Amino acid sequence: MKNEENIVRCGWCGTDPLYMKYHDEEWGKPVQDDKTLFEFLVLESAQAGLSWITVLRKRENYRKAFAGFDPIKVAKFTIADVERLMQDSGIIRNRQKIEAAINNACLFLDIQKEYGSFSEFIWGYLPNKKPIVNSLKEHKSAPARTELSDRISSDMKKRGFKFFGTTICYAHMQATGMINDHIDDCHAK
């Protein structure tokens, strides 16, 4: 059994059990599954301007509201679905973010058709499709964006993606393990 007192974690997750569980089990772990990549696309876009813990606490509500993060189902959402979601207190009720999730689902499906999978597309930006592992002494030294996140964000914006600027893109890359920004001493590195 692990002694929690001796476990070194990245400082951003603090002591909130939900945040620590997310940090330990998900953040920075490479994700190749398209459904999970879509989930993080929706959640990271919803997070714009808010703290990640706010979205993390609403994650299960998002899962229900957005059809289990099935991009095929979300792409078929109608104006009536947008209105329904605007009344759902379990998610962030921002019309632009809700509409962006539906828009992005359609574009996500287009990329799947073009590349065979969204994973093939997004991981294709990385050298040899391998995660970039940064060496960080403290979490505050992690960048908010890089030239790579600039490029991916710009390419996705040209395709019509919404709420996927370079900072959100970089956070998506961290969350899905394309970038490993755990501090060097972190047990999850």
Structure overview:
The chain has 189 residues and is mostly helical. The chain has a single domain (30-180), classed as Hypothetical protein, domain 2 (Endonuclease III, domain 1). The protein has helices spanning 17-25, 34-47, 52-57, 59-65, 71-75, 79-86, 95-115, 118-123, 147-159, 166-175, and strands spanning 132-133, 179-180. Strands 1-2 form a two-stranded parallel ribbon. The model has no long low-confidence stretch (mean pLDDT 95).
Would you state the CATH class?
Mainly Alpha
Topology, number of strands: 2
Portion in beta strands: under 5%
Distance between the termini: 19 Å
Strand order of the largest sheet: 1-2
Q: How would a textbook summarize the main sheet?
A: 2 strands, parallel
Helix content: 40-55%
Ranges where pLDDT stays below 50 over 5 or more residues in a row are none
Total helices: the number is 10
Average pLDDT for all residues: 95
Assign the CATH architecture.
Orthogonal Bundle
Q: How many structural domains can be distinguished in the coordinates? A: 1
CATH superfamily label: Hypothetical protein, domain 2
Structural class: mainly alpha
Shape: globular
| Computed Rg | 17 Å
What pattern of helices and strands is seen along the backbone? HHHHHHHHEHHE
